[in-house]
Write a structure and sequence with these properties.
The protein is mostly beta strands. About 15% of the residues lie in helices and about 45% in strands. It is globular, with a radius of gyration of 18 Å.
Length: about 270
Amino acid sequence: MRRLVFLLALVAGCDGNSVTVKQAAKPVNDQRSEKVIAVAAAKPASTSPEAKTAIDKLLAVHTTNNVAALTAFRNCIVRRSGEMDQGETLLPAECVDRFAWPDRYRADWTFMNSMTIFAVGDVVRFLTAAQVEPQVLDAAQTTSSLEDIRAQWMTMLVPLLDTSRILAAVVNDTPDGTTGLRVWVDEQPPLVLLIDAKTGLLDRVVFEKSDEGRRETWTFKLSDYKTTRGVQLPSKVVFTPGRRAGATWSKVEYEPTASFPAGTFEKR
């Protein structure tokens, strides 16, 4: 018995008392994922010149040299649909995420059962269809959930705009066909960004996540880029927890918004 990402376990039909689901250790069908990426590393005192150049180039490619276009995505609605692995069975799933940089997040899930996740600052709560009031996650569950949420943020590159909050270093030992950056946001653990050497687009976000007391390497694989409001963003995302199957979001759409209604991150 292993816990998939805590948020997904809740959606998979837990009763509020148990947060574990059975997950088969199915192999990942991606040859490049065979190379283990070291995520953790000593945090530098400052961003290296090479890393700054790489970040500038990455943002320029995604925005066709109009980096200001990315600022519209600080507040963004993301609609995802696809399939999630439940044991050996692929089940249809949908999710509507709402991101408000830097510290507000909401996810409305439809996967076996419905559930809403709220994150404001370092407090994460969830609300199932059977509940009246949201339940606050404990410290370990909160840490695990926030690691996942912060990695999702990075798939849109928005954190890279906040240069005063990030430190970065070049990763040299990367899979074939990619270059790499290790990025720290505030005092959070680092994430590794793997960049496609041919297209210059973000290929993967790799991060470490707590899973029942262990640290595992998790991955968001990004592809099928489309342009929204002048920014190239992935319309397909494959989520891989460790070496197990996770989710394939075959349709991902982005809707920047100026603001969110009051209460968006507090109640359904």
